[in-house]
Amino acid sequence: MNTNILCLIAAPFVLAALFDVNNWLKRAQTTVDARGNELAVASHGAGFLALASLAVWIVGPAEFLRFMRDAPSAFPDDWIHWLPALAFVAAVGWGFLWLVSGARRSLAWAGYRDSRFLTRAIVKIAIGGGLWLAFWNPSSSWSRDAVAWLTFARMMPTTGGCLMALIAWLIVTGCTKFLLVMWPRFVSARGAVADDIAAQEFDWDKV
Q: How far apart are CA 134 and CA 138, in angstroms?
């Protein structure tokens, strides 16, 4: 597996990790909406899993499995082999943990469909879809130079991979936020009746 492919595997994870750590530090230092924080954690976890899936798809499942299988024997001498493998494993573990924990906590607000979060999610999905259409399905009405430039950028291994990573990140994180905000609130009939009785019960202490 050549160096370009290794960099293609590791670079999106490194950039996304730095972005997430920077955002986490900002959230820790300022007061922010708790729901927005948990939605960001869940969606970025899903984004890491999307980048991992994209890396496997670009390299090819068989080649990728062979690469991961040989990574432990390459440690510590062949760092250009085991370091991307370690980054991949860390990204998958981090992504799964963030997705599960963020989704579980964000569902505390299930049923409250805040238009702000929905709008942001739709904008991210639209930008990701627009980039995909622009680079993979350019309009025939565009100039030849523009179409040639877009095709060249798409076909280059580095830029093409980065574009796919960006598009996957935008669409997956946007869809995750949208689904979590739109998630309905499930309440058992017995619990609803008990809450209603408690709300209407006469309280002598308040007289």
A: 5
pTM score, two decimals?
0.72
The low-confidence residues of the chain, meaning pLDDT below 70, are 1-32, 157-158, 186-207
Determine the pLDDT at residue 3: 45
Looking at residue 111, its pLDDT comes to 83
